[in-house]
Write a structure and sequence with these properties.
Layout: H1 3-23, H2 29-39, H3 43-61, H4 66-82, H5 92-114
Helix pairs in contact: 1-2, 1-3
Bound molecules: zinc ion.
Length: about 120
């Protein structure tokens, strides 16, 4: 590979990563110029940019699903109305039993792996 090709490939990979931000106009002026310059010489990046712009365009014009939004709002209202029951702290006895169970399970596991 010629040194010039290496520079092109490095720039190409850099520009590919910047294309989504180029498409939504959030690059710095210097980055924007660098991408512009590369786009003038790279068919792959121009095609990639066209794909991004198409996706962006569809996204911006996609209808908002009002039914889903109002359904979610109704669900949240029902959850709020129902209230959240207070979590009952475990008693000392219950925690000991849980710890014993975990210890028994892990020693059983260790035993199985040591066979
Ligand atoms: Zn490129």
């Amino acid at each position: 590979m010629v040194a010039e090709d290496k520079v092109f490939v490095a720039r190409h990979e850099e520009v590919l990563l910047l294309l989504p931000w180029y498409a939504n106009g959030s690059l710095s002026a210097a980055e924007h110029r660098a991408v512009d310059q590369h786009l003038g010489t790279c068919d792959d990046c121009r095609k990639e940019l066209a794909d991004f712009q198409q996706i962006q365009n569809r996204w911006q014009h996609a209808p908002v699903d009002l039914a889903a939004e109002s359904g979610f709002a109704r669900l949240m209202a029902r959850i709020d109305a129902a209230g959240i029951p207070e979590a009952k702290p475990a008693t000392a006895h219950e925690s000991d039993r849980a710890a014993e169970g975990a210890a028994a399970r892990s020693s059983g596991l260790l035993h199985r792996f040591s066979e």
